[in-house]
Structure formats: C-alpha cells, structure tokens
From TrEMBL:
One cellular-component annotation, GO: membrane
Keyword Oxidoreductase: yes
PROSITE patterns: FAD_PCMH
Name used for this protein in its record: FAD-linked oxidoreductase
Source species: Caulobacter segnis (strain ATCC 21756 / DSM 7131 / JCM 7823 / NBRC 15250 / LMG 17158 / TK0059) (Mycoplana segnis)
UniProt xrefs under Pfam families: ALO, FAD_binding_4
Any GO molecular function: FAD binding
Entry keywords, A to Z: FAD, Flavoprotein, Oxidoreductase
FAD-binding PCMH-type domain span: 56-221
Keyword Acetylation: no
Length: 467
C-alpha cells in the first residue's frame, strides 16, 4: 500500500532482512534520546506552553479563552502584553511564545451563518472539524492543507495552503473578516469596506489583533479520486509540470537516499466511494529511519537496499469526499522549513536540495514535499503576485535540524523563495521587504492598529525589523 506522506509501505521486517536479521535491526535502530523538555512549571508558578514539535515554549503570565467577541474585545483591551493568539501550535517559528498573555479561540468555533455559498466561520474552528460542518450543507472548502489540526485563524495568519495550480491558499478564499484590535475595537473589512485592513489582515501573523470570524468561499462537496504511486525521481521531475496542469490537486515527494519519488493526485469523480484505508506513514518512516541507521554510512548501498525493499509497492486508490482525503494524520513529529518559489525555479531548487542533502546529511530520511499554489493579492501572502511552487524539507524531531539553515535555506534564497510564515527561516526586516511589494504598507496598517506594539513578541519585532 502507498501512504499519504511516504507514499508506500515498507515494514520493519523488510529492513531487518537488509541488515541480516531482526536482531540486527533492533540493535541498529536504537533511537536518539528524546530532546530535553523544559519544566512544566517555572519558578513563578506559570505553566509551560510548548508547540507541536517541541522547539518553541513559553510561560505566559495569563491564558485567556474568551467565549464570544465581547469577551475577546475586553480581553485584548485589558490584557498584559505581549498578547499572542494561539491555535494548535503547529507553527515552528516563535509566533506564539509570550511572557504576557496567550489567547486561545477554542471556545469561539463553528459555522455561524451563510451568505449564499460563503460560510461565516469563527476562527477558533479546527480545520478537521470544519469539513463535516460544511458537508452538512453539501459544501466544502475548495482545498485543505496537508495537516488539518490547525485552527482556521492560525492557518489564515500563516498563509497555510494545500496544492493545486488553480486553487489558492485558504486566505485566498476569504472575502470578508472581522478584526478585534488591541484597543478592543471591532473592524469589519472586505474588498470594499476598510480594504487596506482587509488586505493586511488576511495574512498577518496575529500582529494586528485577533480575527474573530471570516466569510469564506465554499465549493460543492464533491467526491475526489485519490491516486498515489511510486516512480524514479527523475521521471517525477520530468512529468511534474504536466501533472500539475492535468490534475485538480497534485504534489510529489522526493524520498532522499532512494532515487524514488511518490506522486499524489486528486480529481473530481462520480465513482462510488472506495475506502482509503488506514494511513501507513508511521511504518514507512520507521522503515526509512531503519535504512538510515543501518546503511547511512554508504549511500549507494542504502539506495540499492531501498529500491529492492520498495520495488513491489503497489499504487493506492481511494474515492471519497474531498475533506476526508486531502489531509492526513501525522503522528511522527518533525521540524520543517518550506519556501515558496517562482514556478520556473521550483524544480531546479528541489533537485539541488536533494543533491545537497544526499551529499552532506546522511541522517535525513523524511521525504521532501513539492506543491503548487495559485496566486492571490493579500499583502503578506507568499503567493502575492503570481503562482508559486513550494518545497518543504523536514527533520525528525529528535534529529539536529541546523542543516535547514546552513544548507537548505541558502538554496531557497538563491532561487528567490519566500518563506512559509509558520516554518523555519532566518529572514528579517529589509530581507523580507525586498520580497513583498506591499511590506511597508502592511507595517503602516499594523502601526495604526497597534501603535503600542502590544501584539508583538520579540520574534515579531525582529521579523518586522523593529528592533
């Protein structure tokens, strides 16, 4: 079977055969120790907050969970700064940590109304819960990201996206929003009413205030046919552009140290439902990790073993409503860097990233993801001004991820990439201003709405070049 992330299943017993037996496999794959965890309570009695991967943490002085917009407005007006909204904690950058006030919108969730086919949705709603809510009315979000655990507000704030040349990121389908500012003011904004606030707020990293609800386009809740198949990496590169043009959704994954790639397509269909089956990602990643641990000292041997082990993988097909297929479970934690590149540079950058990793970092085993996203016009959208191709590199959460900065980011920057706002990067201030034509316009709106900088933690001050 082929899975969402790894695109195929190779059990630990297969790796054991490569190593010469199950005993050798168990000895060789002894995992690295768990990264040290900060104390659950600090010296001042404050409780630990930590992100999903474990690399960001804080001890907020206060944690608030307003139940409605009135409570939210009062909270923002009176709370100790820095005030930071938080969703599921799936960002790898330090967007959420604060010594001041952490605001969760978990109690402000659900679909609260409709305007034609556009849904009015509170931003504390988790993406995974939104699918069945919309399906009750026969509707769906046009696309979903790879993981659906995020809150809608967090996904919009960081320009979270799926894949599809003609389908924008989630914020691209937002046609109106309500922003609660640090002064407690509530601003309704869309393309005609407060248009500058609208263009700034759709992707704003929670730096203008807190978006309490949005009006977002939906599409008919159609069945999709999902197909996943394995092929040589060179063939995947050669066929990628045709497949992006051909399929509603298409993405592929370079599997380092195997010479292979996995392709995943989704297309609308009237075929009867065909169960997807359980995700097999954990077993696949454990197999890749086992190959690394056993044969990481010899890349040619590792590649030969991987091809022999994975050559019998069969394509996977499933048919179901799109909200059930477009996202996947991710029980194995990781840290991630993703940049969005001009389409003419995407595949060249991907090839160079794979070559560099295979030359310099034999410890890497996570597949490398390539997607395509349609343009939109939000000021801080990485897709502002034209369609972009994304490349995402992952590191197992127990492994050193410093190579993302030293080896991978320079490649992305040389190919004119814009960083994903929720994923690891080092760009700041004028470096980002050079990539975003409306950067200074955004900062002007931000200053007007939050003149005292109460929404800015140290990371955001550095990001915006304010320190």
């Amino acid at each position: 079977m082929i899975s969402r992330r790894g695109a195929l299943i190779a059990g630990g017993t297969g790796v054991a055969v490569v190593a010469g037996g199950a005993g050798a496999y168990k000895v060789a794959t002894g995992d690295k120790p768990e990264p040290p965890s900060p104390p659950s309570v600090n010296a001042d009695g404050k409780l630990l907050w930590r992100n999903w991967s474990g690399i960001q943490n804080a001890y907020p002085a206060a944690r608030l969970a307003p139940k409605d917009e009135g409570e939210l407005a009062l909270a923002l007006k009176t709370a100790q700064g820095p005030i930071r909204p938080v969703g599921a904690g799936h960002s790898f950058t330090a967007l959420a940590p604060t010594t001041g006030t952490l605001v969760s919108l978990d109690a402000m969730a659900g679909v609260v109304g409709w305007e034609g086919d556009a849904a009015i949705v509170r931003t504390g709603t988790r993406l995974g819960a939104l699918g069945p809510m919309l399906a009750e009315k026969g509707r769906a979000l046009p696309n979903l990201p790879d993981i659906n655990k995020q809150s809608l507000g967090g996904a919009l704030g960081t320009a979270t996206h799926g894949t599809g040349t003609k389908i924008p990121a989630l914020h691209g389908d937002v046609t109106g929003l309500r922003l609660v500012t640090p002064s407690g003011q509530v601003i309704d904004a869309d393309a005609d009413n407060n248009p500058e606030v609208f263009q700034a707020a759709r992707v704003s990293l929670g730096s203008l205030g807190v978006i309490s609800q949005v009006r977002i386009k939906t599409s008919a809740n159609r069945r999709l046919r999902r197909r996943v198949w394995l092929e040589p990496f060179d063939e995947a590169l050669a066929n990628a552009e045709v497949r992006w043009a051909q399929h509603r959704n298409f993405e592929f994954y370079a599997v380092p140290f195997t010479g292979l790639a996995a392709n995943i397509s989704h297309d609308e269909t009237d075929e009867p439902a065909l169960a997807r089956g359980p995700d097999q990602d954990t077993e696949f990643l454990e197999a890749l990790k086992g190959l690394r641990n056993l044969l990481g000292f010899a890349t040619p041997v590792r590649k030969a073993a991987a091809k022999a082990l994975l050559s019998t993988a069969k394509p996977e097909t499933a048919v179901d409503e799109g909200w059930k297929l477009l996202s996947t479970e991710r029980p194995v934690r990781f840290n991630e860097m993703e940049f969005h590149l001009p389409v003419e540079n995407q595949l060249k950058a991907l090839e160079e990233v794979v070559r560099t990793i295979e030359k310099e970092r034999p410890d890497v085993f996570f597949p490398i993801e390539a997607r395509r996203i349609a343009a939109d016009d939000a000021w801080l959208s990485p897709f502002q001004g034209g369609t972009r191709g994304s490349v995402a590199v992952h590191a197992y959460y127990r492994d050193d991820f410093s190579f993302l900065y030293s080896l991978v980011e320079p490649i992305f920057r040389r190919y004119e990439g814009r960083p994903h706002w929720g994923k690891l990067h080092t760009l700041r201030g004028q470096q980002l201003a050079a990539l975003y034509p409306r950067w200074n316009d955004f900062l002007a709106v931000r200053q007007e709405l939050d003149p005292e900088g109460r929404m800015l933690n140290p990371y955001l001050k550095g990001l915006f070049g304010l320190t």
